[in-house]
Predict the 3D structure of the following.
Amino acid sequence: MTPEYKIMSKPKIGIIMGSKSDLFVMQDAADVLKELGIGYEITVVSAHRTPDRMFSYAREAAGRGLKVIIAGAGGAAHLPGMVASLTHLPVIGVPIKSSNSIDGWDSILSILQMPNGIPVATVALNAAKNAGILAAQILSTADDAITKKLISYKENLKKKVEESASEMGDV
Ligand code: RP5
């Protein structure tokens, strides 16, 4: 399957989504991983339209060196849970408010309410950026360079708030 993925060097994170129409959300995961200098691959894998592709992607992911999978889907979103059932890798689910969605709740509940034994770490609706950060945090437990980058990323968030506060007039 490898040649058809869009790959940044030495991918450790696999970003998949149920449809190309999910890319407007899932791109945020790729962007934050790029910012943190973490290699990822990104592609479309549909649980219901391409079940065989989903099966082989999930089964082969660990062997190809991936450490975390980020899976986004909208509507009756079974992709993250099904992928989690097929691999021991941690799976982060991104519920997406898609064109076929009932306000996003269908996707949130499908991804969040996994039965015991097969967890999916579910982020907020459309929160692919947080999925990317969480994936980096998982990698950081065994990687000091990523830890340093995350500390500086969060330090920067703090600085921005402080700058806003001083612009608005500190109290
Ligand atoms: C889901 O259905 C996809 O994840 C997407 O969010 C939604 C709509 O897909 P398209 O009809 O736009 O391909 O499977």
Observations:
- Residues 6-143 form a domain with the Rossmann fold fold (CATH 3.40.50.1970).
